[in-house]
Design brief:
4 strands, alpha+beta, 2 helices
């Protein structure tokens, strides 16, 4: 939700648990759908109302997904670069064992996959999920143990 309004910016994610570490929503500076929101703040879902800025950067592909990108510098290398460019804070939500740390609020202590499911259920219950669709992506897997490798 845009702070102080009923308006919202839809974003898509394959890792819902990282919403807890979002530090901005980024839109293309020339995207007419979102230009009026640049410089405003939105509230991070399931965070008890933590505000983050709406920023603009040409990195965002207006034609991909919703045209709005959630920025999680602590858990994505591309977001990390955007975070540096826009002086965003880095919020790490995971411990080394991939459980959620204190920055995860009520999800603290959960395994990332359990948190992913629980957070998604909570978002659905709150009416924040617009749609679910299949999306092919590359997921790195450890050769030795077969674990999913994700940026902590």
């Amino acid at each position: 939700m845009v702070e102080g309004s009923e308006e919202y910016i839809p974003v898509a994610t394959t890792r819902p648990e990282t919403i807890l570490g979002d530090t901005a929503v980024c839109v293309h500076p020339e995207d007419p759908r979102y230009q009026h929101l640049i410089g405003k703040h939105v509230l991070v879902p399931m965070s008890d109302g933590r505000p983050i800025p709406v920023i603009a950067d040409t990195y965002v592909d207006r034609e991909f997904g919703t045209g709005a990108l959630k920025i999680t510098p602590g858990h994505d290398p591309n977001d990390y670069e955007l975070g540096k460019r826009h002086n965003l804070p880095l919020i790490n939500i995971m411990n080394r064992d991939a459980s959620i740390n204190a920055n995860g609020g009520r999800y603290q202590g959960m395994d990332r996959f359990v948190c992913r499911d629980e957070l998604w259920k909570d978002m659905e219950a709150a009416g924040l999920v617009l749609k679910v669709e299949k999306h092919a992506q590359r997921v790195p897997i450890s050769q030795r143990g077969g674990e999913v490798i994700e940026p902590l």
